Amino acid sequence: MVLQKFKSNIAKNQLFNKKDKLLLAISGGADSLALAHLLNKCGYSFALAHCNFKLRGKESDADEAFCKALADKLGVVFYSTQFDTKRYCKDKKISIQMGARELRYNWFNDLIKKNKIKYLLTAHHANDNIETLFINLLRGTGINGLKGIAEKKDSLVRPLLIFSKDELLDYLKKENISFRLDKSNLESKYERNFLRLKIIPKLKKLHPHFETTLINNISNFKEESQIVNDFILEKVNTIVSIKESEILIEKHLLKKEKYIKTILNYIIKPYGFNSSQIDDITANLKENKAVGKLFFSEKKTLIIDRDFIFIKQKNTHDFQPIIINSSEELKTINFLKISEIKTPKVFNHKELIIEQEKLIFPLIIRSKQNGDKFNPFGMKGFKLVSDFIKDIKLNAIEKENCRILENGNGEILWIIGYRTDNRYKINNSSKKLLKLNLLE
Questions:
Q1: Preceding omega of 321 cis (within 30 degrees of 0)
Q2: Contact call for residues 248 and 241 (beta carbons, < 8 A)
């Protein structure tokens, strides 16, 4: 029954065919063993690829030897590699799980390119899909996170998603196929293992058909998410444009939409911006404030301008905003000298003297942005920061290094080292003064 179900699913969903060159990620565990034997029985052309992460000493080496013996038995090509996983993760300051994933998929991709392999196959099954659903829910997700793991995406195929873990174990038992057991899978310290070992079994006790129900729901979520995505994409195509590698989102069109956050999430989440940032951006849009505010993901910079939201490639010249949550934190900024004074002896445009009670935390030190306006000390009315900088004839490097101190209410306090804002000037009755100087 498992074999026929396997064949039917591949044919029905056109996952791959007999002419395709396949690479199976083999660990030696039950799932990948089941997939290897099913592929072999169906007559597919495939090779095995095993990663030895060197995390379990002799057991890791025994896993590798087991997989090599399996390849010899099945008469297929065997690729293997060894990683110093702990060192890699320490150097990159990432978790073992994340590091192992990066290492194996980088290696798989190299194998695919060098050997002209069409598809990489992994042995994820229905229970993995259920666990992924819960992980996505816990981390915060839209409807796309509810549809679980994709059965086929680009060159990656997961042909066992229609099978439960129990189905695969029953198949291995009936076929008298042995497999390796990774004892780390029995440790509940990892998030996925904790769900698998502690949470899901309790849910199954409450609802005996829990797994079947979730598997069916995930299938429904996939269809429903596609309907939602098609609707959102239609909206996005009218709101978003691309100009010289920059993503431009028209603010006035976005603000007309009823579901601003959902549409914004669809647009910017793929660029690495998190849920908290999306909440902040949505709030800024609705309240018509924070023009010039910046948000950063790992590779992108998002800028809220007067008419557009820009998303551009982040580069080494981008200044990461400094968030200052208290007076004590302000004193730790290494390029500013902070002192408390009673009355100023002389006024200097290049320093900021302000009443402490007018500081609204969090303060932000950031780069200048298009549309920034302030009321320069000693002048009447507002002026664009860009015009002010042009007027005082800063050179290109000075312009690039120009920084702004922004109050918690979004108002500019100081073009650091050049001019303060008239709205925060002091008078003879001012008390508890703070003086800020830019260190040369």
A1: no
A2: yes
Place of tokens 């990948």: 32
Could you tell me which residues are beta bridge partners of residue 116? none
What pLDDT, in 10s, does the model give residues 373-398? Answer: 999 998 889 999 999 998 988 765 57
Cβ count within 10 A of residue 331: 13
Amino acid present at 321: P
The residues that bridge with 353 in the sheet, in sequence order, are: 435
CA angle, residues 106, 191, 67, in degrees to nearest 5: 45
Which CATH number is 322-438 given?
3.50.40.10
6 token code pair: 């396997």
Beta strands in 164-224 (DSSP E): none
Question: How confident is residue 18, by pLDDT bands cut at 50, 70 and 90?
Answer: very high
Q: E strands, 170-237, where?
A: none
**What is the torsion angle, in degrees rounded to the nearest 10, for the CA atoms of residue 324, residue 329, residue 331 and residue 333?**
-60
Per-residue confidence (pLDDT) for residue 315, from 0 to 100: 61
C-alpha to C-alpha distance for 287 and 434, rounded to whole angstroms: 30
Residue closest to 333 by CA, chosen among 405, 412, 426, 409: 405
Helix or strand (DSSP H, E) at 38: helix 30-42
Q: Does domain 2-220 have CATH number 3.40.50.620?
A: yes
Phi and psi at residue 246, to the nearest 5°: -95, 140
Annotated domain spans of the chain: 2-220, 244-313, 322-438
* Entry field: residues in the chain: 440
pLDDT tens string 215-256: 888 888 888 888 988 989 999 999 999 876 788 899 999 999
Interval 407-437: pLDDT, tens: 999 999 999 999 999 999 888 777 889 999 8
The Cα 321–Cα 329 span in angstroms is 14
Give pTM, 2 decimals: 0.62
CATH of domain 244-313: 3.30.465
How far apart CA 167 and CA 211 sit, in angstroms, is: 12
Cα(360)–Cα(432) distance, integer angstroms: 15
- Beta strand 300-304 with 240-243 is unpaired
* Distance (Å, whole) CA 424 – CA 435: 13
Coil, strand or helix at 69: helix
Query: Which of 66-75, 265-274, 322-331 reaches the highest mean pLDDT?
Result: 66-75
Chain centroid offset of residue 330 CA = 30
Rounded Cα gap, residues 437 and 421, in angstroms: 15
Q: What does each C-alpha distance from 298 to 262, 295, 315, 318 come to in angstroms?
A: 22, 10, 10, 12
Locate 385 and state its tokens: 């920061």
